[in-house]
Amino acid sequence: MHFSSLFRAHRLVLPFAFLLACTAITPVMAEPPADGAATTQPDKPKHHKKHKNKHKHKKTPAQDGTEGQAAADGKPLPADTQVKADPLDIGKDGNVVIHGLPGSWQATVLDRPPAPPPPVAPSAKAGAGKLAPGVPLQPLTAEQVAAAASVAPQTPVSVSRVLIPISARVGLAAFRSGNRFLIVVDNVEPLDTSALRGDGLFSTLTVDTLPDATLIQVYLPDTRNLYLSQQAEGWVLGDKPPPGNAYGNRRILIPQTDDAGVLYPMRKPGRVLAIKDPVSGQKLLVGTSAFDDGGVLSFRKGQGYDVWPSVEGVVVSPNAPDITMKATARGALLMREGKPLLDEGVAIYANDVDSEWLGLNNLSDLAMEKRFQAAQLAAADSSPADRFARRLDAARAAFSNGDALQARAILTVALQDDPEESARPDVRFLLAAAELLCGNMDGASLLDEPWPEAERRATQLWRGLYDASIGGQNADAAHTLALDFKRIESYPSNIRAVLLPFAAEHIGRYGTPQDMAALDGLPAEPVYDLAKAFKALRTGKRKEAIDTFQKLETNRDPVIAEKALEQTTALQLSDGKITPEKAADKFESLLLDARLAGREAMLRLLQADAYIRARKWSDALTALAQAKAYAPKGMDTVMSSMLSQILLNIARDSTGESNHDALLHDAAMLRAHMAELPTGPQKAEVVLAYGKLLMSLDLPDQAQQAFSDAIPMFDKPDLRALAGNALATAYLDQKQPALAANILTRTDDPALSDDVRAARHHIQARVALESGDQTTALGLLGADQAAVSLDMSAHIHENKGEWAAAVADLRRMAETDLPPKGVLTPAQQFLALRIASDASQAGDKETLSWLLARIGSRSLDGDTGRVFGLLTAQESAAKVEP
Known about the structure:
The chain is α+β, with helices and mostly antiparallel strands. Among the domains are: 1-28 and 361-454, Serine Threonine Protein Phosphatase 5, Tetratricopeptide repeat; 62-120 and 131-336, no CATH class; 810-882, no CATH class. The protein contains 36 helices and 18 strands. The strands form 4 sheets. Strands 2-12-13-16-15-14 form a 6-stranded antiparallel β-sheet, with no helix packed on it. Strands 1-6-7-5-4 form a 5-stranded mixed β-sheet. Helix 7 runs antiparallel to helix 8 (404-417). The chain is elongated, with a radius of gyration of 38 Å. Residues 33-85 are annotated as: Disordered. InterPro entries: TPR-like_helical_dom_sf (IPR011990).
């Protein structure tokens, strides 16, 4: 990954000098501390640090847990919390359907999208399970509250999910408040609440139908999470992640700055509702979503408003009368009436990783420079007790200002003085992010570690950047980057200028069609043309892509120009416009540019591929070895696959090779490179081929060792059996039938295919033959018509003097292996001689006559020809008599 050429002008350095400078500082944390897990914090909303202890909410019964305590003590609950179930509202399954809110708690529609679905007027008659507005709260009984509070997080319940049956036209929001999980459903269409029931944790579910919204509540006895997902039948609420769904990688709302305020983008926004929080009594502005777009990850406190964490939609608690929220076609827009809403980097970074851990702020360049200078002065003047905190502030200010080198240098010194602080996840993450921007992938590997659950989703963007940088998981990295691509767009300009083009290019190269939708609306700046070209290429617009690549070959940025030249050459090779040898030469001519751009490893891999196409195995191995010297660890899998391909082709090309020196050279190449392959099926194939080469070189002992090494590395029964066959054959060649029988037994498997099992029969027959049991050998061969089986059967009959049977087997072989035309090979000539000899012994004149007709006028070589002539002389004379 190369970031340096896009840094601010006063930090611009040559790419190789930048990378050298980055590696000049030794990372102080190569491994996580042993007690790193102890830093994991529970998943709970966090306030911005600068407001710590300046805003405290009034303690309410829902917050301080008095309900559960009173129930546990058997005491009556206070008037404002004691509840009773309606004895008449019993479902068919015997569960109590609980619903109701005080009449004073109403929902008001503040705004709606420009083109909402036509509202359906609620029925004048209340249907089953529906309540008229203003029905007073039917509270929970003390027994029900105690039962819910006693449900342990690991306690299995009979119903772990509840279906909320609403269509994809209805907006919804979900969030936690105190000890309640709340779901706000827009009443743009009527909701049948009769199915909203459950037991276990969901036995405390309550429903209240208001004029404009339906409010669903679930009492939570602890800090467990609830999971909400959209399905065809509606939304499903569960106490476990949805099956088969990567819930931890789901979409989240990524706020964007807007001229009028802060926009929370949604693919299909619902209406904005105003409600009172049943727990705290605060007024809430709720932006609903009709699609599963996720929610806001962390608590945010702005000027005059608080943004609450949410599972779905956006929830804002206004603290000033002029704060409002408006539904737009693009999502929910947080505004200030009469004047612009100044975000100051609070709401726009809707997670603690961006705002707290990295210290990002969307101030102007000048303001961020002043922030960094002030942080430096504060660090210099700090007392020993505050020294690390002030230095950390300075590192974050430098990072937000786009100076990753400075951020890393400050952190390195700070951690040398206070090494115990390295256990903090926010410190480790900032250092890893700085290492990534410096191009030090070893230091950036910290990003691949597990992070506290509360922040895990927010850290995935940077893990995706790391995975994209090292390669090896390109498709997964592209998907991760696409999910949070808009988040990068909100980063400070100096960081955005580095990360956004890189992420866009990676998505264009490796993303799915759905992932590439994130690239719609890319800026018109030339730095994004490469990403647009890759997107065009992968969406079928090949000519447009080629034209763009050719245009970019002369780009002033050497990195972009080199990538364009690489791609143009690769496309010409795949289209057959240049030969593989020509492509390899062109890649060689790009070497200096690629080295300056930090892409020598990728260029060498492309060159190795060209040599593979040209079947120049030695050159391919050389290019691959050069690529390995520069490749990050994520490319190990790709390089191992290419190495395995090269070595297997070397072995295959050696099949039938009679030149001893050539065989010896090929075997030496395989032996020299096999150790570079990781243990597994790919290496097993190479080792097996190497063993066969050793057998051709008449080195049975070494071949047996190679076959023995290959067998346990295969992961499929058929492949393991084929390796066992090779080892058994090697044992038989050395007259060791007992060892051969043992290895056949060890590699046997009931799941073997018919072809593999048939191939084993003749080896088992050889074992029996070598052991002196000719009858068993013939029984194993049976009616097998394979040449190897017929040959063995003929040998057995010959040894027993059963010439007629031997002739029958050999004639069946000859019908396949003895061609009626063409030059005969030595093996074919020997087969003809063998048939003539056995037929003479059997007195089979008909077979001799057939053999002479098959051979025709073709002559056999040397002694073979002379003996063949003697054996068939009488039959030949009979043919020429009148």
